[in-house]
Amino acid sequence: MKLLVVEDDQGLSAALSAAFEAAGMTAEFCATAEVARQFLDSYHFDALIVDRGLPDADGLDLVQSLRRGGNAIPAIVLTAQSQPSARVEGLDRGADDYLGKPFLFAELRARIDAVMRRADRRSDSWLQCANLSYNLATQQAQVSGRPISLTPRERAIVGLLLRAGGRPVSLARLEDELCSPAEALSANALEVSIHRLRRKLDASGCEALVKAVRGLGYCIEEGQR
Which domains does the chain carry? Predict the structure, then answer.
């Protein structure tokens, strides 16, 4: 198991590093949301542990932006804000669990195990259209059983369209799901992403088509090229 821990308290990071090593777990540490995004874009991690009070962002903003981008990595939020309303906010914005500080390492380890078990149970959940399949847990797409390399935004588009079951997804919903509140996605940028996605699906031999539905948005369905 490989974890990414985003925590700017050096003392806590050192203590967690020693505890994870003693437990036979591998953990990478960073102190900001920006560096965490770079790690997540470049490397695979099994779970994310993130503090809310980071120097450059609220850790929940990081989790929410990952969810909007289609990244379903199990995420545990650590925070001194442990009142019920804060916990509800954390879960509503995409955290899988929420642990108040101070905490015992044994409890953190148990919560990591719990979110990983839930992720394992979801890993068999697939959506399908023609020979295109999409794993709801890992957010990965396959064509005829072969993985296809897509950007996080392209994966998110595939997931949204497949979850709609052939019904059109509006431009407003696509823009809302693909961006964080602090970001903006122009209609042109969305069209560019869809155009690139179509080219990749076509090159892979995909038999599912991403179609524009005039006045309604986009859908994905089986069809002839």
Answer: 2-122 (3.40.50.2300), 126-222 (1.10.10.10)
